[in-house]
């Protein structure tokens, strides 16, 4: 297996372990989860910390999420499409919040925050993918599709955060209905 594929396999094996063990995960646990010898880790990473940092960066990248969005059925009615999008977003936020907690942090790790340009690019990438899924029904909305994307993202974020919601997370349906009630035209509400 090429080194780049081995790196990715180790990163993907590390992520669930970080949710369980935080930075206390051992290279033995990672190797077992990846189905490789422990020494294999050090052929492609200089240290466990480097592997953990790369796994955290990978968790916050937008590519996998945009691939999931590409699977949303564009023939669904707008509300159903938005519920699917909100469910995917909620799953991602809950996973990110869990990773942040497991690592004992209060927000995204410094290594992710340090690259502000990349973070902006990731957000734009995701926003563009969501907006493209909304645009076919722009005539049903009081605001442009990118504003719906923004409102949806903000409400999914807040509605998926256990501390903000006092442990009572909003469902994707509740989130979408709240957004649509405020942003659809009268004609759209009849739709």
From TrEMBL:
Residues 4-63 form the HTH tetR-type domain. SUPFAM superfamilies: Homeodomain-like. InterPro entries: Homeodomain-like_sf, HTH-type_TetR-like_transc_reg, HTH_TetR. Residues 26-45 bind DNA. GO terms for molecular function: DNA-binding transcription factor activity; transcription cis-regulatory region binding. Keywords: DNA-binding, Transcription, Transcription regulation. It comes from the Bacteria. This is TetR/AcrR family transcriptional regulator. It comes from Nocardioides marmorisolisilvae.
